[in-house]
Each structure stands twice: as C-alpha cells, then as structure tokens.
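Internal tracking record. Fields below are filled automatically when a chain is submitted to the structure queue. Please do not edit lines marked as system-generated. If the sequence contains nonstandard residues, flag them in the REMARKS field before resubmitting.
Queue: standard
Priority: normal
Entity type: single polypeptide chain
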Amino acid sequence: MQKKITWIVVADGARARFLRSEGWGHGLTQALDQAMVADNRPNHEIGSDRPGRAFSPANGQSSGMEPKTDWHRFEKAQFAKEVAKAVEKAAIAGEFDRLVLVAPPQALGDLRTAMGSHAQAKIVAELGKDLTHMPLHELEPRLAEITPV
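SYSTEM-GENERATED OUTPUT FOLLOWS
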C-alpha cells in the first residue's frame, strides 16, 4: 500500500508554513525549504496618497473623503494568492495527495478563493485558527485532531 502524503498549510494574512505528513506516527516535516512571509506594512505606507477632500457648495464647507480601498486587506488577499499559487504548483507536480488548510477565518476564505482546481480537489480538512506562531512540537497535537500526523 502506497503511503498518502498530506501537506498542511498553516497561514495567516502575512506568513505561511508548508508542512508535510506521511501518516500516523511519522510527525511533521517542512514541505518547502522555507516559509513565505509578506511585507506587512501599515495602510499609510501601502496607499499612494492621502484621501481627497470634497467641497459642499450648499454650506461652503469641505470634508475629508474615506479611502475606497483598505490597502492592508488588499495586501493580505494578494499574499493568499501567492500561497495558493505555490500550493497549486505542488499539486500539479503531484507532491502531495491530501491538503489541509489552517488559517484564521478571513485568510482561510482568501486561500479557498485563490486556490486552483488541482489543489482544491485535494483539500480534506480545514481549521479556522491562527497557529502560525506555534512551534512545531505544539502544532502536532493540535493537527492530529483533524489529520494523521
């Protein structure tokens, strides 16, 4: 019987770890050489200009306008696309048989939306929690609840 390889992507909006499991009792290893980390800058550094001002001829006053784009949120969605692209590439190459996604709910939604069809077909479990800062030895028991580790 051929062993099934599971990739576990532990991510949030700015960093992602790619872990690999070969089944019960084998533990977790790194699937890729290094984690992905986004350039997590504040909104005022990402946006190009300050919001404009509007003038109301009715009362002669001007007021500030709210920016239409939350640039910080936009950067997180872009990062999810990069992570999904790396996972899709590995899925096409046949590097894993099953995929588990672990991320906070909003990042999980971004990943699901950005994931290609090859990777989506291999998703077997999801966990809506932020475990990106958890050390590997603490992460294993948490993941054992949803996938063989």
